[in-house]
Design brief:
mainly alpha; two-stranded antiparallel ribbon; 72% helix
């Protein structure tokens, strides 16, 4: 594919790994990430809302049955790990799983399809096609995955202090090494605080890097397959696509489940330190 575009292999790979960016430095925005993430989120919300409004109590259609299967399956998973009464968790889990899966699924499209469309549009507008960039998988952008994990982090912080900052402060100073001796409590408090702070900030970091790493690796492999001779691309591409379809589903599920687990842990703080 690189030869057909008049690019060397290095230029081809670099082109596919470059974002459509506006601005510079900290204030730069990856327009393609924003475009596809908001577009897929809108698609998800629109289709699920319309399905809910048009749902029938009789024999459901195929699409309604599929949506009900997804929603009921995810709700069942949430109930198995979330031990508190919070009506927000079910819809949150459904939103995370479907939205992340849709963004991951963009990796299933032919690696050159949408970028070539963007280059033709750019050429029609008088732009140099080699300077037109488009990355279509939002979840292989670390800014996107970290932004989602930061939202999860803020939610865990909210539920951690929802029933009182004092309880959360007590948790930070006495967990995981509690003691009934006042002197031991004072001596262990700095170590407990340090370990809890490391754990607290490691959660969103690991959550974002896990999803980003898997999706970025998948994209790299697709790009490397695309630079192979055309007659050998198809078997490698088909095999990797079948395997990667499992990967994107597993990663969507893992991101969703870890989010619910972290929020359940935030609720547990108040049970452990209620007295």
């Amino acid at each position: 594919m690189s030869d057909s575009q008049g690019l060397t292999i290095d230029q081809y790979i670099h082109h596919h790994l470059t974002y459509w960016t506006v601005g510079e430095g900290f204030w730069s925005l990856n327009v393609d990430t924003l475009l596809f993430s908001f577009g897929l989120g809108t698609l998800f919300l629109t289709t699920f809302i319309l399905t809910a409004r048009r749902a029938t109590s009789g024999v459901p259609g195929k699409w309604q049955a599929f949506v009900e299967l997804v929603v009921e399956g995810i709700h069942g998973q949430v109930k198995s790990v979330f031990n508190y009464d919070n009506p927000m968790m079910g819809p949150l889990a459904v939103t995370i799983f479907v939205w992340v899966w849709l963004m991951n699924f963009m990796d299933m499209l032919p690696v050159d399809a949408l970028p070539l469309v963007a280059q033709h549009i750019g050429a029609a507008m008088g732009m140099d096609p080699e300077q037109v960039y488009l990355k279509v998988v939002p979840t292989n952008d670390l800014n996107m995955t970290f932004g989602m994990s930061l939202t999860v982090f803020l939610m865990t912080m909210y539920y951690s202090v929802a029933k009182g900052p004092f309880r959360y402060g007590k948790f930070l100073l006495t967990h995981p090494f509690p003691s009934h001796n006042i002197f031991a409590k004072i001596a262990l408090a700095p170590f407990n605080l340090l370990m809890n702070l490391v754990e607290t900030f490691a959660k969103p970091l690991s959550l974002s890097l896990r999803l980003f790493g898997n999706m970025f690796a998948g994209e790299i492999l697709y790009v490397l397959i695309a630079v192979l001779p055309w007659w050998i691309q198809w078997p490698f591409s088909f095999g990797w696509t079948v395997f990667h379809l499992i990967v994107i589903t597993v990663q969507s599920f893992v991101f969703m489940m870890l989010t619910i687990v972290y929020l359940n842990m935030a609720h547990e703080i108040h049970d452990v330190h209620a007295h």
